[in-house]
Write a structure and sequence with these properties.
The protein contains 13 helices and 40 strands. It is an alpha+beta fold. A hairpin with a 5-residue loop joins β9 and β10. About 6% of the residues have low confidence.
Length: 786
């Protein structure tokens, strides 16, 4: 609500701005509704029979991101070869055994997940399966399948998908991290590996579906099929399917040529690879077809909509996308005869599929939003519409609106063109808001209009429901963009609120008399609405003026002024979040200044939470001392001890309040717990104890916190009282000091830092450093640092 308690409806994401037109599309990168492009595509001619023949002979190739490729050995299809610049060699696993098919030959290759290479094989009869090799860890495992696999795919969650002539199969699992050998003389689990690679789900394809390709995004798996008569479909299913999960079927648009491979180009955008036409010797029809999917919940049907953007290919060795471990979509281009790849024996070169950087947008397009805005009350007067977005020079956004009381009267009501937008000088409609886009006069930022009819004596837009229609116009080189729409209702009218009753509107809108001029009440209401549009934001800022006094919400330019008002000098080099956090706790810092709690809070703010994370530990020195005597009757709980954090164990028996079996340590006990009970002969020992451990402070910096030493020291100088002595100690490893020497493991709970690279004559074996393979087909040939 605004300052007048007027509610609003916000439309901001793809679902809320959904529509059925193809001329307007949702841009995932911008987060906005824009015009679709209309480039002249150069797609190969689609011949289903020739395309299927090319699909049968297409050679799979995978790319590891380091310039190395792998393929099925053309001479011995039962093994896989890799090429790292030294010619094609057999691909080896961690035991230096070649990757070979247990029976038959390999039929497909795929790479994905965290670096898993899947090689599907079949003997052409009854034995089929997939060999899975991890390119980084070099372990190898396999799974048996019931039918010959056509295509395999590894998704981002390391799940293995296989599709055959009749079934889609999901496999999941991996071997144990280390080899395990059982011992018959002791108790052993029935199954060594609780999660071996196995089939966890499968679904039969419908009759007539012939699978051609697989790909996956963050949520779903997609399968390209054809029905044998030239019609193609894209089947979609959740990546975490349930037993009853069914496919969503998207019909490929008839105007698209017959494709044999499917790839994910970007979220919501798919590439269809069409074989090169035999008659196209110069390869002029070189573009890759792009589509997006649209699902109709009411009809339970889906369709693919062509995206008219050019993604040209330089050449085409085979009609296959290259499997890539980095997730980028690559096609297989021919190798130049004089290139280094040709010298090394590469049969094809994976090239990334990139757009032609010359956009051409539709000149105009319109779409009706599917969402009908419900006010909840009949006769609602819809007030004002705000748009946050971009309207470049030469572009326009026109809004049409209609109101109705029920679904039965919706079709009878026409859309009414609304006035042109007015650019708002304020950056965002909420008070002190930042906005979704930068503000440029009459081009981007916040725009507004008053919802009204185009004619008639009364021009209010009244009705329970409101529906919007958006029309965009472009110069072809640029496109308008709608990031958000906000609709206020009911109308807050100065005329109705502040003028006498005889000035108010007494008539109702009459669509049959739209040619009549506005009556006096309507003209006055809309005139006063112009003043309301200027005054309401000012009133809203005044009503929200307490924001200027809140450190977390005040504009950045106000922070120094707010700091001076609170008696705090903010260092200019501090980042804004730290300055805001310091001012938020300025009262506590002043209240607890000089105490242990105050010092810890100040250090926590200055180090951006390192104290709360345990990376910076503030310790009073007397707590670092531990007695070795047996003290009976004292609870030795060490839950707050900085060295052990509650993990210590005591054998003390609670007999009395202060039974101590040590004269010397008894004096230390008096100093720790009851110095006022010390006798004259013991006071020297108590004073000595205080001299050794009192008024001293130690700051422990663990692991990554060592780089904060300068900031910690500057804070200690300003916050620690003059009579205290302090020192800063650094530790390379993030561990609890009192436990690591006992357990010889990392006992500090935090995110594991990346391991150091092993260096000869510098790394302590077993204590630091890690030898780890890069995720590559041949780690030894990777020159880059792992």
């Amino acid at each position: 609500m605004d300052v007048n308690n007027t509610p609003y409806i916000l439309l901001r994401d793809k679902r809320e701005l959904d529509h059925r037109a193809s001329g307007l599309v949702w841009d995932e990168q911008r987060g906005a509704l824009i015009l679709a492009q209309d480039q002249e595509l150069r797609l190969p001619a689609g011949d289903a029979e020739a395309a299927l023949a090319a699909w049968e002979t297409a050679v799979p190739l995978v790319y590891d991101g380091f310039g190395q490729v792998a393929r099925i050995d053309p001479d011995t299809p039962a093994r896989v070869q890799y090429n790292a610049g030294r010619g094609f060699l057999p691909l080896m696993d961690g035991e230096l055994k070649p990757l070979r098919a247990p029976s038959g030959v390999f039929v497909d290759l795929a790479v994905g997940g965290d670096g898993r290479l899947a090689a599907a094989w079949s003997d052409g009869a009854d034995t089929h399966g997939v060999e899975l090799l991890h390119l980084g860890k070099r372990w190898r495992t396999s799974v048996a399948l019931q039918e010959r696999p056509r295509r395999v795919c590894v998704d981002a969650d390391n799940r293995l998908w296989c599709v055959g002539a009749n079934t889609l199969v999901l496999c999941e699992g991996e071997p144990l991290p280390q080899p395990y050998r059982g011992d018959s003389t002791r108790f052993e689990p029935e199954q060594d590996n609780p999660r071996p690679l196995r089939i966890v789900w499968q679904r039969a394809l419908e009759a007539g579906d012939n699978a051609l390709a697989l790909c996956a995004d963050r949520e779903q798996l997609y399968c390209l099929t054809h029905n044998g008569e030239g019609q193609q479909f894209i089947l979609a299913i959740s990546r975490t399917p349930r037993p009853a999960s069914a496919f969503k079927r998207y019909r490929v648009a008839p105007e698209l040529p017959f494709a044999v491979d499917l790839g994910l180009l970007a979220p919501g955008r798919f590439a269809l690879l069409v074989p090169r036409a035999v008659a196209d010797a110069s390869f002029r029809q070189r573009d890759c077809a792009l589509v997006r999917l649209r699902w109709d919940e009411s009809l339970a049907l889906g369709e693919t909509l062509p995206i008219r953007e050019r993604y040209p290919m330089l050449s085409q060795a085979w009609p296959r996308f290259a499997g890539s471990s980095d997730g980028r979509l690559r096609y297989l281009a021919q190798v130049d005869a004089d290139s280094a790849q040709a010298t090394a024996g590469y049969p094809a070169r994976p090239r990334e599929l990139l757009p032609l950087q010359r956009p051409k947008y539709l000149s105009a397009a319109a779409a009706t939003l599917l969402q009908e805005l419900d006010s909840g009350r009949n006769g609602t007067i819809w007030h004002r519409l705000y748009l946050e977005g971009c309207i470049p020079a030469g572009c326009r956004i026109v809004i049409y609106a209609k109101t109705f009381e029920s679904a039965a009267t919706r079709a009878a009501q026409p859309f009414i063109r609304q006035p042109d937008w007015v650019w708002c000088s304020r950056r965002d409609e909420p008070a002190y808001g930042k906005g979704l886009v930068p503000a440029r006069r009459n081009e981007s930022g916040l725009f507004e209009l008053l919802l009204q009819r185009s004619g008639g004596e009364v021009r209010r837009m009244s009705g329970r429901y409101l529906q919007l229609r958006i029309q965009m116009e472009s110069d072809g080189r640029h496109t308008p963009a709608i990031h958000a729409l906000k609709i206020y209702y009911p109308r807050f009218s100065y005329q109705e609120q502040y003028l006498p009753e005889h000035f108010r509107q007494e008539q109702q809108p009459d669509p049959q008399q739209s040619e009549l001029p506005a009556n006096g009440a309507d003209l006055r209401e809309r005139l006063l609405a112009a003043f309301e549009s200027l005054l309401t934001p000012i009133e809203t800022r005044i009503a929200a003026s307490e924001v200027l006094l809140h450190p977390q919400h005040t504009p950045a330019a106000q922070l120094p002024w707010l700091g001076e008002a609170l008696g705090q000098a903010l260092p200019v080099q501090w980042p804004l979040p730290r300055q805001r956090e310091w001012l938020m706790h300025s009262g506590e810092l002043q209240q607890w200044r000089g105490t242990l709690a105050g010092i810890a809070l100040a250090l926590d703010i200055v180090t951006d939470g390192a104290v709360a994370k345990g990376q910076v530990v503030v310790v009073e020195n007397f707590r670092l001392r531990r007695t070795m005597a047996t003290i009976l009757g004292i609870d030795m709980d060490d839950a707050e001890h900085p060295l052990t954090l509650g993990t210590g164990m005591s054998g003390n028996s609670i007999v009395g309040d202060s039974l101590i079996l040590s004269e010397k340590d008894g004096r230390d006990f008096l100093a720790l717990f009851a110095p006022e009970l010390a006798q004259d002969s013991e006071r020297d020992a108590v004073e000595d104890f205080f001299d050794r451990y009192g008024n001293q402070l130690t700051i422990l910096l663990h692991g990554a916190a060592r780089v904060l030493k300068d900031s910690v020291q500057q804070t200690l100088v300003a916050q620690v009282p003059a009579h205290l002595q302090w020192r800063v100690l650094e530790s390379e490893h993030p561990f609890v000091l009192g436990l690591s020497p006992l357990l010889a493991i990392d006992t500090f709970i935090e995110r594991q830092p990346p391991p150091r690279r092993v260096t000869l004559d510098d790394t302590y074996i077993g204590r630091e450093g890690l030898l780890r393979n890069p995720v590559a087909l041949s780690p030894r040939d990777v020159n880059a640092r792992p």
